[in-house]
Design brief:
By secondary structure, the protein is α+β, with helices and mostly antiparallel strands. It contains eleven helices and eight strands. An eight-stranded antiparallel beta sheet has the order 4-3-2-1-5-6-7-8, covered by helices on one side.
Length: 373
């Protein structure tokens, strides 16, 4: 739990930090009246040493670059007006957050070991949920007087040792309890299939198939086979016209002889599932194959989609991320003070047991001495 809280706090503003680290690569100087190159022309100028991108991302701002995604961590930025390479994503920053996320989700494990570590983190989530709920019950003052409430919800100066840890534990637990409960409930639904199904059952929605909503394989790894580029520009224009207020469009690069091209259109800042929609177009005819709006999903699927962004705080924008990060930091102190108090209790118990043993020895010696006399 301590490790997940530390890594959760570190991941709190990942998106903003990555964008800041890549701010130079993400912008270009757009001359007045300049026109972006057709998508086919841009993709034809991909550096020869690169694989085929899995995703293409672009924004409506005239000074924004085109982002070519290769798997999960590698990004190349292109000038949309000339096709020139502007640079790559910051490997150090992205690599750092990738390692932190690996620790957060799988305790740093890879491959088949993730099955075991995922079970450990899932169990830790359940225990954390129990501790958070029971902690609120234990915190509840017996007498609702100002002095009684003040003692368990405000920091007190001049304390040390066990008294200080107890005060920190109660105060931080009070202010961070509800955000932590929300975060852990969401992570539990993401950790266990039964918890995920429970969300659908409680909302009165049908439970989807086990693999529904999973990321397509081509998004998680680099592609080597060159796709057909003909007609992509017209499809991209159609996607831009579908939602007038779009802020980001992500195109999954079609692979092989796939008949369709999928676009994810985001009208928000990337942290609100209700602002996202998905458009599927036939790559040959340009006809609309599927148009998926958030509002068309079942209530259970809508709640489940929100839970991922509530867990990270992104659903509430920068303020929500701040609350989630603060709650994670609060969890760090709760774990630290809980461990410290447990160690002190153990030491006190062992010391008491040792004294009792010495008393027993002393009593036995005195009894023996009397008998000898």
């Amino acid at each position: 739990m301590l490790l997940m809280c530390v890594t959760g706090a570190a991941l709190g503003f990942e998106k903003q930090i990555v964008r800041w680290a890549e701010r130079k690569q993400r912008s270009v100087t757009a001359n007045a009246g300049a026109q972006r190159l057709p998508m086919e022309s841009l993709l034809a100028q991909i550096p020869a040493e690169s694989s085929v991108p899995t995703t293409i991302v672009w924004h409506p701002a005239p000074n924004s670059t085109l982002e070519l995604g290769f798997g999960r961590d590698r990004v190349i930025f292109l000038d949309p007006y000339t096709g020139a390479k502007r640079g790559e994503g910051n490997l150090r920053v992205r690599g750092f957050f990738s390692e932190v996320e690996n620790l957060h989700r799988w305790l740093g494990a890879d491959g088949s070991a993730r099955t075991t570590t995922r079970a450990i983190t899932g169990a830790a989530n359940l225990i954390f949920l129990f501790l958070a709920c029971s902690g609120l019950y234990l915190w509840w003052p017996r007498n609702w007087t100002w002095n009684a409430v003040k003692a368990v919800m405000t920091f007190r100066s001049g304390l040390s040792g066990r008294a200080r840890d107890f005060n920190w534990h109660n105060t931080i637990g009070f202010w961070m309890c509800l955000p932590l409960i929300m975060i852990v409930i969401c992570s539990t639904a993401m950790s266990y299939q039964w918890a995920n199904n429970l969300v659908y059952r409680l909302s009165g929605s049908p439970i989807p198939a086990a693999n529904a909503g999973q990321r397509p394989p081509e998004q998680g790894k680099e592609q080597k086979q060159a796709p057909e580029l003909e007609g992509l520009t017209a499809l991209c224009v159609a996607a831009e016209k579908k939602v007038a207020e779009w802020q980001t469009i992500t195109m999954r690069m079609p692979t092989g002889k796939s008949p369709n091209v999928v676009f994810q259109i985001d009208a928000g800042d990337g942290g609100r599932p209700d602002k996202r929609s998905q458009l599927t177009l036939n790559r040959k005819t340009g006809e609309e194959v599927r148009w998926e709006l958030f509002s068309n999903n079942s209530r259970g699927r809508q709640i489940r989609a929100w839970m991922r962004f509530v867990h990270t705080g992104e659903g509430g924008g920068v303020i929500g991320q701040g609350f989630a990060s603060a709650a994670s930091l609060g969890g760090v102190f709760l774990a630290y003070t809980g461990i410290a108090m447990a160690i002190r209790r153990l030491a006190a118990w062992r010391g008491k047991a040792k004294l009792q043993k010495l008393d027993c020895v002393g009593t036995s010696y005195k009894s023996l001495a009397r008998r000898t006399d």
